[in-house]
Amino acid sequence: MNWKESRAPVWVIWGLVAAFGFTQAIAWNLAGGAPRRPLVLVEVLAAWVVVLLLAVLASRRIETLATRLSQKERAHLSAIDEMEQLQTQNAMLQIVARSVDVPLAFQALASRIIRIVPCDRSGLALLTENGQEFQTYTARVRETERRSRPRPEVTFKVESTAIGFVVRSGEPLILNQMQEAAPEFLDANVLYNSGFESALLMPLVSKGRTVGTLNVVSRKKGAFSDAHIDALRPIAEIFAVACVAQQLQMQIGKYRTIEAMSDYMLAIASDINGALQTIVGHCDLLDRAHPDPALHRDLATIVLQAQRIADLLEKMRVAANERLKEAAASISESGIPASPEAYGDREVT
Length: 349
Hints:
By secondary structure, the chain is of the alpha+beta class. The chain has nine helices and six strands. It has helices at 3-30, 38-98, 102-116, 162-169, 178-181, 186-193, 226-289, 293-333, 340-348; strands spanning 121-127, 133-139, 154-157, 173-175, 198-206, 209-218. Strands 3-2-1-6-5-4 form a six-stranded antiparallel sheet, with helices on both faces. The longest helix is centred in the last third of the chain and has 64 residues, at 226-289.
């Protein structure tokens, strides 16, 4: 309920009072003037005092009720917004629980983001492993999505971009005058040339590390405010956790692959080394049983090559162990527990 709607009943009351007074004045004028008897004048004045008091009390009561109704309406709208945010967060958690695929979750939730923050498009920019580039994903929230799975559309460098500025600062950024930001930021220039006038960039921060940005853009100037930042902050936090979880899952997958390859390589090396020892043993027996110098030279060549193969297998075994240790160290630095017991200890600390 706006201000004019809340004041309408008050205006009606005072309009009726004014109409009554105007009608009485016309009646007195037609009757030759106001009544001259004091008792009648007292009665008229008393009636007007009562009418005015009732009008004042009714006006105040209506204003009080209108204020309470406005407060309840604002609380209701706030509850609806909060419920929409909770539903979006719940939907995202369900998607992440089924599969840690951040771009897929973003595409599935793009239609819900527009309910929280009115916009024309939403975007997701994820930092690559080398930390030098962003892969951007776009969801056309007002159009039907034609792709079953999202794919990176544009790759931006960290330097000279608004998303890079947000990642370095770790703070949200509102660009309500895209024309002014276009000469400074490459991505803002791309958006401005595409017809967008406003943008809101939210950093995805998890454990003090920024892994990307969640972006919404609009074709209207001044479309975003601090209230929209507060509305998007919980969603950005969930996206950040999902991004870190996806990175950790990929690291675990690489570690398990390396571990499986190392185990397989060590098993093959052990079998080959056993066969080489058998060959060397038979060569030694032949060397003792046959004193032919030519045969001795051939057997020495075979033994030499067998030892060379054994040395190569040893180098492969050492390299596999070192690579496995490097992968384990990377997992440890990422904070992934090596066992359920270690996870419990980490939770306690």
